[in-house]
Design a protein that fits this description.
With 64 residues, this protein is mostly helical. It has one domain. Helix content is 28%, strand content 6%. The chain is built from one helix and two strands. The protein has a two-stranded antiparallel ribbon with strand order 1-2. A hairpin with a 2-residue loop joins strand 1 and strand 2. The radius of gyration is 12 Å and the shape is globular. It starts with 18 loop residues before the first strand and ends with a helix.
């Protein structure tokens, strides 16, 4: 997660994204997809990431 070095609060002490179901809990407007266990067991796989991406797209739309 080196790309988040400018937002140190976005990662916990183990350098894992601080998030709930792909929505960053420390920075409004920051979202994740493809994390292990994000919303289901298959979130980090091609089989599961599509459902998570659709969920995140709807969250982004809520911000607009």
């Amino acid at each position: 997660m080196n790309y988040l070095h400018a937002l140190p609060e976005a990662l916990d002490e183990k350098r894992v994204p601080v998030q709930k179901e792909g929505v960053c809990t420390s920075h409004k407007g920051l979202f994740y997809v493809g994390l292990p266990g994000q919303r289901s067991f298959s979130s980090a796989t091609l089989r599961g990431v599509g459902k998570d991406a659709k969920y995140i797209v709807n969250k982004v739309k809520d911000l607009i």
